[in-house]
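does this look right to u?? adenosine-5'-triphosphate version
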Amino acid sequence: MSGFDLTGLTASFGGERVIGPLSLRVKQGEKVALVGKSGAGKSTLIRLIHERVNRESSLVPQDLGLVNALPVFHNVFMGQLDRHSTWYSTVTLMRPFARDRAEVRELLVELGMSEKLWMPTASLSGGQRQRVAIARALYRKAPLLLADEPISALDGPTAQVVMALLKERFTTSVIALHDVEMALKFCNRIVGIQDGQVALDETSDRLQASDIMSLY
Ligand SMILES: Nc1ncnc2c1ncn2[C@@H]1O[C@H](COP(=O)(O)OP(=O)(O)OP(=O)(O)O)[C@@H](O)[C@H]1O
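got this back:
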């Protein structure tokens, strides 16, 4: 099951409530866009969902969580680190297996950066780094995607390619997006967050960009 039904979601910082109490039920197959202005609580909500569903999901955090000193290959491989034995991961660190090399390379081809496979991640541009985090999430092959602004550093055509891939490869997704047009195009449900609460929850086919802009 890639859906979830969470209740009692709350988060506070310095005694100030920034999320909830909030409930969110996402059915298998739903592609949810979390929208709302900066500071509304989208990232915090994604973190709360991830804490609850954890291993069942592929996460693309806003800060990407990459290991700069390692090549692209190893950062992508980390998407399945918890599925491999210690010896397999240790061998992979020094001499990756051919089938893993091929699989990661194929993902990078789809993301338009296969020539970077063995480059240190620190040497990449912001958009390339973002695609490494996306490749890591795809490589994990969890049925549920949790992604926080996964296309913020990408050019328009690349962002379209990435959103199409995420839609195709994950059964269910919750993606925080600032781009309202992309949210309507690639997600079938829009959840608007305002001051840590759900202020809008509607299927995309019943919304226009102007309906969502009232949240900003
Ligand atoms: N580690 C933290 N310490 C203190 N306050 C925090 C922390 N993380 C988030 N906040 C506060 O919680 C609120 C929600 O932040 P959050 O990052 O979830 O918003 P957001 O909707 O994702 O914003 P953005 O679109 O800018 O990423 C903000 O007021 C923010 O200042």
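Residues 13, 18, 36, 38-44 surround adenosine-5'-triphosphate (CB under 6 Å). idk if thats expected tbh
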